[in-house]
Amino acid sequence: DVKVTQSSRYLVKRTGEKVFLECVQDMDHENMFWYRQDPGLGLRLIYFSYDVKMKEKGDIPEGYSVSREKKERFSLILESASTNQTSMYLCASSPPWGAEETQYFGPGTRLLVL
Amino acid sequence: TQLLEQSPQFLSIQEGENLTVYCNSSSVFSSLQWYRQEPGEGPVLLVTVVTGGEVKKLKRLTFQFGDARKDSSLHITAAQPGDTGLYLCAGEAQGGSEKLVFGKGTKLTVNP
User: Fold this and answer.
1) Which conformational region is residue A112 in: left (phi greater than 0), alpha (psi within -120 to 50 degrees), or beta?
2) What stretches in chain A show pLDDT beneath 70?
3) Kind of pairing between the strands at A10-13 and B19-24
4) Engineered SS bond to B109: which of A6, B2, B12, B36, CB 3.0-4.6 Å?
5) pLDDT for B6-30, tens place per residue?
6) Percent of chain A's residues with pLDDT above 70
7) Rounded to whole angstroms, what are the CA distances from A25 to A44, A104, B35, B59, B99?
8) Cβ A102–B48 below 8 Å, yes or no?
9) Are A107 and A6 in contact (CB under 8 A)?
């Protein structure tokens, strides 16, 4: 069974803290994604990785960075958390383009920045 | 930029009623997917439609892809409280892309 796990379901951080969100998939997928989901704004792509050490900016990369050192793990980093980064963060993975377009999502991390 | 507009944004109905959710765009999509997201969880794929005019059925859910591949609809017959959730449509950009364009979703509440 396909599985995407995220390191935390809920996280509370203070403004200015460095925050790491981890995502692990066990499907040997090439592609991994980080989204944030906010009421009325839907899912917005932050960063995308199509291979180890490869990354591509999404629609809203400002204030975020990512790391993909191993195929199964994709980390999202908030260098200096701000209150406007309070959100639900969703990680997803998918096989390479042309194989199957389905994205498999993790359960999400609800981040509150105080 | 490709956009997907979903309507309605919110829908609250009684158990047993029928409903239709729409996903529209001015752009052509190679395929379109529907996901359902329950509170506190990530979205889960329901169906992918690929061919213009295609109709797929999943129990009480019927999905249709427009002939021009610019729009899709989800029809639920005899809705149940278990159908409650956020329904998202997502399109694969034409020309091929690993990325999906997501609509903002329709939040459905089915009251017993």
Assistant:
1) beta
2) 1-2, 97-100
3) unpaired
4) B12
5) 999 999 999 999 999 999 999 998 8
6) 94
7) 20, 9, 19, 29, 17
8) yes
9) yes
Mean pLDDT calculated for residue range B68-75: 95
Choose the closest CB to A45 out of B43, B45, B99: B99
CB-based contacts of B104, cutoff 8 Å, min separation 6? A40, A41, A42, B5, B6, B9
CA distance B14 to chain A (A): 24
CB distance A42 to B103 below 8 Å? yes
C-beta separation of B47 from B63 below 8 A? yes
CA distance B80 to chain A (A): 23
Chain A CB contacts of B105 under 8 Å are 42
Of B44, B93, B32, B49, residue with least CA distance to A104: B44
Closest by Cβ to A90, choosing from B42, B96, B104: B42
* Phi, psi torsion values for A72, nearest 5 degrees: -85, -5
Other CB atoms within 10 Å distance of the CB of residue A113 = 19
Contact assignment for B90 to A103 by CB distance below 8 Å: yes
A-B contacts (CB, under 8 Å): 53
